[in-house]
Amino acid sequence: GYRVSLQGNFFGRNHTYITFPEYNPCKHIKLDPPLNIQSNVTASKCQIWWSVPWYLVEILQYELQYKEYSTSWEVALNKTPPSSLPQIEIEATELRSGIAYIARVRCKVSENEDSYHSQWSEWSQTTVFQRAGVPKLSEKILNTRTMQFLFIPLSFGTLLYLFWNCKLSQKASPALTFPRQLLSFSHSIICTMGILR
After folding, report:
1. Any idea where the domains of the chain sit in the sequence?
2. Alpha-carbon 128 to chain mean position
3. For residue 163, is pLDDT > 50?
4. At 20, which helix (H) or strand (E)?
5. Contact, 37 vs 46, CB < 8 A?
6. Cβ–Cβ contacts within 10 Å for residue 141, how many?
7. Which CATH architecture is the domain 28-131 placed in?
8. Where is the Fibronectin type-III domain (predicted)?
9. Which residues contact 99 (CB under 8 A, 6 or more apart)?
10. Using one digit for the tens of pLDDT, what is the confidence trace for 136-150?
11. If we measure between CA atoms, which residue out of 66, 63, 95 comes closest to residue 80?
C-alpha cells in the first residue's frame, strides 16, 4: 500500500495533508473501455460481442446500453450479461422492426472479486444494428387471395340471380334463355379462375 499526502504553501506556511493514509492501487482501478464492439442480427435475436484483454476476462462485469438510433442516451435501455463472457443477446421481440439501433458497453471489476476493485470504465465505441422487417405479401398475392375469398359467394349470388331472372322472365322460350346465360356465366368463371392462377 501507499500513503498519499498533499503538501503545499498555504497562507505563507507549509502544510501537509494526508489524503489517503493507506492507499492500495488495486482497489482504485479505472479500466479502459472494451474494444471492437460488433453486432449480428438474426430473425430471433441480436448478438453483440466485444474484446477485453484476455487476462481480465474472468474478473470483469459489463453493462450494455442500447437505444433507437434517433433518440438520446438518456432514454437508453440497460442490460447486464448473465456471465463474464464479453457478449450478450437481445431478443428480437425487444426490437422494433425496421428501426436502427445503436449500442455501447462499459466494464469494471466484478463485485465478487476480492483482490481488485474498480469504477466503471468509459463507454466503448458503438455498434449499429437493425432488426429485419417482417416479410409482407405482395400486392398481387394479397389481391388474388381477396378475389378467391370473394369468388364463391359472388358466384353463388349470380347463379341465384340468373335462376330467378329466367324463372320470372316473360320471354317465349325461358328454357333456352337460362342455359345460354348459365353457359355464358360458366365461361366467365373459367376465365376468372385462369386469371387468379
Report:
1. 28-131
2. 11
3. yes
4. strand 13-23
5. no
6. 10
7. Sandwich (2.60)
8. 33-132
9. 68, 69, 130, 131
10. 444 444 455 555 666
11. 63
